[in-house]
């Protein structure tokens, strides 16, 4: 299977976070959370929050990929965050470090909920492509925790919003050759349980990087466990169809609308 191009984690211009916070320093690298605050937000609020992880095949990409989504959800009353995490091209890291960072980021948000004005019980994780894997991993995988993390703080999100996620890393999924020594513990699709949170999956029907069958199998296995998994296919669309670009704007808008409906159904947004 070919690697997903770093263009899937493209750098979007024109969106400015309200604030940036370092959530982790590791191997000489400071990793940031880019935070978008709702209008009139104060530290005394207890709002739901969502944290996004960008795509780029665990190799590259930029948090700004999800800045448009963050700005939109902040305008709807949520605190929204886009996270940096270690990448192979920038940090020489492996996919394992991506998951460790994702878990650290959610733990940091939960630990700092009082000063950020968020409800620590209502933190949602989202992401696209490899970032979708990171988000799903925080909800499903027991391993791959940073040694410096306080494991008494949960990294489990209350819900998942996934855009063309590479959440099956088995022999028929994505990235198997890179993670084959530990794939069974690393693949969210192989670690589902009755505790896996409600999940929205937005998927291009012509994705050449991620087999469509993996999305259908994931939904079926989630429902067999009695868990909610809303799966929406977008006909004729490829892997990065949901990005905020001129060419993809109709699908950016359509997927954001679906994300809004899903979050409203869980009472994180008001219709």
Q: Output the strand order for the largest sheet.
A: 1-2-4-3-5-6-7-8
Helix content: 25-40%
> How many strands appear in the DSSP assignment?
8
What's the number of helices? 9
- Rg result: 17 Å
- Uncertain segments of ≥5 residues (pLDDT<50)? 1-9
List the secondary-structure elements in sequence, H or E. Answer: EEEHEHHHEHEHHEHEH
Count structural domains: 1
Which structural class fits the helix and strand makeup?
A: alpha/beta
The CATH C-level name is Alpha Beta
Sheet of most strands: 8 strands, mixed
Oligomer: single chain
How far do the termini sit from each other?
Answer: 41 Å
Can you tell me the CATH superfamily?
Alpha/Beta hydrolase fold, catalytic domain
**Envelope shape:** globular
The CATH architecture name reads 3-Layer(aba) Sandwich
Give a short overview:
The chain is α/β, with parallel strands linked by helices.
Structure notes:
The protein is built from 9 helices and 8 strands. The protein is α/β, with parallel strands linked by helices and 271 residues long. It has one domain (6-265): Rossmann fold (3-Layer(aba) Sandwich), CATH 3.40.50. Residues 1-9 have low confidence and may be disordered. Residues 50-242 form the Alpha/beta hydrolase fold-3 domain. This is Alpha/beta hydrolase fold domain-containing protein. One of its GO terms (molecular function) is hydrolase activity. Keywords: Hydrolase. Belongs to the 'GDXG' lipolytic enzyme family.
């Amino acid at each position: 299977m070919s690697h997903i191009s770093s263009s899937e984690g493209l750098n979007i211009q024109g969106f400015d976070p309200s604030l940036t916070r370092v959530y982790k320093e590791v191997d000489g690298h400071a990793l940031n959370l880019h935070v978008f605050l709702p209008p009139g937000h104060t530290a005394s609020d207890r709002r739901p929050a969502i944290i996004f992880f960008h795509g780029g095949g665990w190799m590259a990409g930029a948090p700004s990929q999800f800045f448009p989504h963050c700005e939109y959800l902040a305008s709807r009353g949520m605190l929204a965050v886009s996270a940096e995490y270690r990448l192979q091209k920038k940090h020489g890291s492996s996919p394992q470090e991506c998951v460790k960072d994702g878990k650290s980021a959610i733990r940091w948000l939960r630990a700092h909920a009082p000063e950020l004005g968020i409800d620590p019980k209502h933190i949602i994780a989202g992401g696209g492509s490899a970032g979708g894997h990171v988000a799903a991993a925080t909800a499903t995988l027991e391993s791959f925790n940073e040694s410096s993390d306080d494991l008494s703080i949960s990294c489990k999100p209350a819900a998942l919003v996934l855009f063309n996620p590479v959440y099956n890393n088995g022999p028929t999924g994505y990235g198997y050759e890179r993670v084959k020594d530990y794939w069974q513990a690393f693949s969210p699709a192989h670690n589902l349980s009755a505790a896996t949170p409600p999940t929205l999956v937005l998927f291009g029907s012509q994705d050449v990087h991620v087999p469509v069958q993996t999305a259908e199998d994931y939904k079926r296995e989630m429902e067999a466990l009695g868990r909610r998994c809303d799966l929406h296919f977008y006909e004729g669309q490829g892997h990065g169809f949901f990005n905020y670009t001129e060419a993809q704007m109709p699908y950016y808008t359509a997927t954001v609308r679906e994300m809004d409906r899903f979050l409203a159904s869980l009472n994180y947004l008001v219709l």
